[in-house]
Amino acid sequence: MNQFFKRSINFFTIPIFLLLIVAGCDKDMSVTLDNGTAGNVGVSTLDSFTVNTSTVQLTHMPSAATGTLLVGKATVPNAGEVMASSYFRIGFSNVANDIPAAAVFDSLNLVLKPNRARYYFGDTTQIQTIHVHRVTQALETKTPTPSFPNQPLPVYVTGASIFSGQQFNYDNTPLGSLTFRPRVSSVDTLSIKLSQALGQNLFDLIKSGDVRVSSNENFQNYFKGMALVPEAGNSAVFGFTDTLQVKINYSYLGADGNKRTAAKELNITDRTYQYNHISYDRAGTAFESLSTTTPEIKTTATAGLTYVQSGTGVVAKLSFPSLKEFLQDENIAINKAELVIESASNMNSVYGIPGSLMLFVANPEGIPTSFLTTPYGTGVQQAAYVPSGQVTGNGTYTFNMIVYLKNVKSTSVYDNTSLYVADVSSGLFNTFNTAFFATENGKPKIKLNILYTKFK
């Protein structure tokens, strides 16, 4: 049994009676207590407070230089469609004209490799199609500005970037396409044959020493980049490493008279200009209106349903309207505090869930300005997913809240703040990891458990 629910405990070998408050989402929970006293320690007969919950859409999600090209489309039950297209600039690994004079052009190919995690999200049993387009508009970073003067930017915005909501023009006619059946655990590469005309053009420019291929800067002014775009009927999203290759393949006769093959290679030379464009469609779900213009939906309007989703920037908001008043009682001493979130989603789902969650601290305007740190440390606290151990049970994420309660009690900066539950930063910007929270009686199963001593 969890030690929060033990009926008694000893401190320094003398019995002290403990009071437990359990706060459920949008629900007042009564206190369980023991009878009796010991020395100057006593118990209260009743104390309770409410946890308010909402689902929130974050803004200004940076998606450049994550190391992962996200490409695909998936439909998530109760959350709608998500889609990712990846844009990138390419440059020569070697701009020198080292192609033999007698060489002839063969083909142009884009080679993609799965990222280290072999990330996928969605139904991989269906055939998928990826199109490669030529970008016609220069990829540019931007620095977002606050909606109002003197308002801070989200803590995860650290400077200029390309953000997931940005989109750049590309030629509607694909340079090439690939239709494939995913074999996530075994496929090492995908090779997409690109336009023969483009390949011949690039080959001729190199052989002739054209100024457009004399430097990567000149080349990127001429060829602004590529975009990987999923077919509308796709059912899964895949993560590819940004160490892709664009190969200009050619052949020539060697000195021995035998045919030889080689390739001039282009790669992503500046990861600042590789980013993932993220879009979503929540039509027909309880979250249909959730967007940057309607950034919050209370769980009272969604039958208690709330979730977190990376990539699209969906987080669960928690607020504790009576917490500070409770903490101001000078006759209590907090011994332990934990936030326990039950997940209705599990690790075996094709819609991958976060392996760990973190908490943003959002100011009264709803802008996440800091993170919940590790107890008495400076690092971001991460709550790992713990399976229930039962086939039908809910997994949990558990946060140590002792420092947060101390800050709420003693620091006015924490007045009227709230917590945003989100995927950890390693997955927040380059996955679609999704976790729905369990519900009970139309309310999320989220509890703030506080173990404390009450003094007379």
From TrEMBL:
Which organism is this protein's natural source? Sphingobacterium suaedae
* Name used for this protein in its record: DUF4270 family protein
The organism's superkingdom is given as Bacteria
Annotated PROSITE patterns? PROKAR_LIPOPROTEIN (PS51257)
